[in-house]
């Protein structure tokens, strides 16, 4: 039976259409028609969407004849953008658009009404076809989301009206006579998926026979214990109906069965052992004290949510194999347990750093342990005896960002500087040789003990022991010119050049580069894994890595650790090309700086980076002596000197990293052949809360080697 669309669908009257304007004028002339105009609020909501949308679509009036009401609405594209904006990013805009291509048919509008409602609310499809021969009765209102005003109205029409009042643009069609052998072909025509929620067993089978012949998948929900059933006839055209549970059955034999007569075949489908105890007990009373199978409204609504999720998976090409699963709320509620208390990320008491030994050799070895290194990896080993001290590279303590071990060589250079400072303070300073001797390529430096001293170095001893990373948000007060000169001299004394950025606009430009780099570090799976592998909590026994308290995060920033540390979350953001806020902490700290300082060396050999590391430590100690807080800022590309390095670092982001590298080189006035040893932010800030722990340096009794 053909049903006039005005019985269940909105009439959309578009601004600027003469014919629609004449019909609207006719409606306005009718005193019985109510007009609701909230367009201005909708337009305000549209303007608030992030990122902003650019659209000037004509609005419209949606007229609902059964309500004798017209509602002012945005145009179809703008309406969908605003109505479904809160779906993001559980459903992305691209996914939402893909789902509009899906046409879904629903047979049976008791449980099916909840499914149709969920699909419409989520915008999970672009067209819905509804079929049910029955009218709403009072006994339906324990589970059908209708009202007493709908009593006596066809269930398919009631569901369609409710959908139209949610979204006047959603394509709707109804078959108020339900489906039978004569109309099943018409119902299935053009559908991508069928949801079967019939009461009659013969039509359950008939729908599947027709769907299988047309390779259309069928979904079903049974409210008892939340059974979700999927039959992928599109992928398995020879799959037996109901997974073979019903066996070979004749459709005609199932027609006209009484409620009690349906029990046996229904139990073959559902499984007598799998239905709930209350359902099973009720079946015993069927026809005696209860007239039909019990259903609860909450269970039916759960079915709507479950099948909407299944439809969404199907429409997006995600995993949805044939089979069944139970989403049993009682079973889940029986599993209630007290939640585990998470880690306390607050700032507890820090373990005081051990002081240096009294003897000269012990003091020099201790000084090496106080050197900075990327991720506090401490990539060194030390041999020391009465004749001298040798620094070895430990290549096992490297990461992806440590391109060609350049960051490790910088750390070894800082360690060598500390050893020289301690030697000068104890009157044991002697000559230093880089990459000499016969101990292989990992021998980086040999310092022969003598009886020399150097007042400039000796004066750095106490400052070297105090040196720490300070990640507090700073106050961007100016740095005195004499301080800038002192820092430049500290770098120059170690064979490097210091380039400082002090203009706020340039600092902001650099902050954007650093923030973008932080986003890449979090989105790239390998870099992300290594980044969080460096973090240490107060209860962790390890003495490498970065103490999380030293990040100086406020409560809001700390609360995000549990999110940004999750690889699955970062995978979604990478797939969606989002995550612009991931660099916010870095951006805020860089913008709060008084200056950015880059230690620059000429040349790209290991020796150059060792010299650069000594300059870094010299500048760092000098900056703290002048009252400045120092934090190293290492963008992903810091030690990538060419395109091949960047491709190896993060192939998906190589172009972005290359552009960031170009911007920073320009900001710091880099010339051809110059490379970064390290970049630090200088600020005026409170003292650091804690210092990350160090591996103890213990002199080996026989060889004199220190062990970490």
UniProtKB/TrEMBL annotation:
Domain THIF-type NAD/FAD binding fold intervals: 85-270
Gene3D superfamilies with a match to the protein in the record:
NAD(P)-binding Rossmann-like Domain, NADH Oxidase
Name the NCBIfam families for this protein. PRK07877.1 (NF005901)
Name the PANTHER family for this protein.
THIF PROTEIN, TRNA THREONYLCARBAMOYLADENOSINE DEHYDRATASE
Q: What is this protein called?
A: Rv1355c family protein
């Amino acid at each position: 039976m053909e049903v006039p669309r005005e019985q269940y669908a909105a009439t959309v009257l578009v601004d600027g259409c003469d014919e629609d304007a004449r019909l609207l004028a006719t409606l306005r002339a009718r005193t019985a028609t109510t007009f609701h105009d909230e367009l201005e609020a909708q337009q305000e909501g549209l303007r608030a969407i992030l990122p902003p949308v650019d659209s000037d679509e004509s609005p419209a009036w949606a007229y609902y004849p059964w309500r004798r009401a017209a509602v002012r609405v945005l145009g179809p594209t703008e309406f969908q953008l605003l109505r479904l904006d809160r779906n993001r990013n559980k459903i992305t805009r691209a996914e939402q658009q893909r789902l509009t291509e899906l046409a879904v048919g629903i047979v049976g509008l008791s449980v099916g009404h909840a499914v149709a409602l969920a699909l419409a609310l989520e915008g999970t499809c672009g067209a819905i076809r509804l079929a049910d021969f029955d009218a709403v009765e009072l006994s339906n209102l324990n589970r059908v989301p209708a009202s007493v005003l709908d009593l006596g109205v066809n269930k398919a029409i009631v569901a369609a009206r409710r959908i139209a009042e949610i979204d006047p643009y959603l394509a709707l069609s109804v078959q108020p006579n339900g489906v039978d052998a004569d109309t099943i072909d018409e119902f299935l025509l053009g559908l991508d998926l069928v949801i079967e929620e019939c009461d009659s067993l013969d039509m359950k089978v008939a729908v599947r026979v027709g769907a299988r012949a047309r390779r259309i998948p069928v979904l079903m929900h049974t409210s008892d214990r939340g059974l979700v059933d999927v039959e992928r006839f599109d992928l398995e055209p020879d799959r037996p109906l109901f997974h073979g549970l019903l066996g070979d059955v004749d459709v005609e034999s199932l027609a006209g069965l009484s409620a009690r007569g349906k029990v046996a075949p229904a139990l073959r489908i559902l499984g007598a052992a799998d239905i709930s105890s209350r359902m099973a007990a009720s079946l015993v009373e069927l026809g005696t004290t209860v007239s039909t199978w019990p259903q609860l409204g909450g269970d039916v609504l759960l079915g709507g949510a479950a099948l909407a999720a299944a439809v969404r998976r199907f429409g997006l090409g995600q995993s949805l194999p044939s089979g069944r699963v139970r989403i049993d709320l009682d079973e889940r509620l029986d599993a209630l347990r007290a939640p585990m208390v998470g880690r306390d990320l607050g700032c507890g008491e820090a373990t005081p750093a051990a002081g240096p030994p009294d003897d000269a050799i012990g003091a020099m070895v201790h000084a090496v342990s106080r050197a900075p290194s990327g991720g506090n990896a401490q990539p060194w080993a030390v041999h020391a005896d009465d004749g001298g001290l040798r620094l070895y590279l430990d290549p096992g303590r490297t990461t992806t960002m440590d391109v060609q071990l350049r960051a490790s060589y910088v750390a070894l250079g800082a360690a060598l500087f500390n050893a020289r400072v301690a030697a000068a303070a104890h009157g044991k300073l002697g000559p230093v040789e880089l990459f000499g001797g016969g101990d292989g390529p990992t021998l980086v430096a040999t310092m022969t003990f003598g009886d020399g001293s150097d007042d400039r170095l000796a004066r750095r001893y106490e400052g070297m022991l105090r040196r720490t990373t300070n990640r507090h948000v700073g106050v961007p007060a100016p740095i005195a010119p004499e301080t800038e000169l002192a820092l430049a001299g500290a770098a120059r004394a170690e064979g490097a050049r210091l380039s400082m950025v002090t203009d706020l606009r340039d600092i902001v430009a650099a902050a954007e580069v650093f923030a973008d780099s932080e986003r890449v570090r979090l989105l790239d799976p390998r870099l992300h894994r290594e980044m969080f592998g460096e973090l240490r909590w107060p209860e962790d026994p390890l003495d490498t890595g970065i103490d999380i308290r030293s990040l100086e995060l406020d409560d809001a920033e700390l609360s995000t650790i549990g999110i940004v540390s999750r690889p699955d979350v970062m995978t979604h953001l990478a797939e969606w090309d989002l995550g612009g806020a991931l660099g916010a902490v870095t951006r805020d700290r860089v913008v709060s700086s008084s200056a950015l300082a880059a230690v620059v060396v000429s040349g790209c050999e290991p020796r150059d980076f060792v010299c650069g590391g000594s300059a870094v430590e010299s500048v760092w100690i000098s900056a703290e002596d002048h009252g400045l807080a120092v934090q190293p800022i290492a963008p992903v590309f810091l030690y990538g000197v060419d395109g091949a390095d960047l491709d190896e670092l993060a192939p998906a982001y190589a172009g972005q990293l290359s552009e960031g590298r170009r911007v920073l080189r320009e900001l710091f006035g880099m010339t051809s052949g110059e490379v970064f040893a390290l970049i630090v932010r200088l600020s005026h800030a409170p003292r650091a809360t804690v210092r990350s722990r160090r591996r103890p340096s213990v002199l080996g009794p026989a060889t004199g080697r220190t062990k970490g």
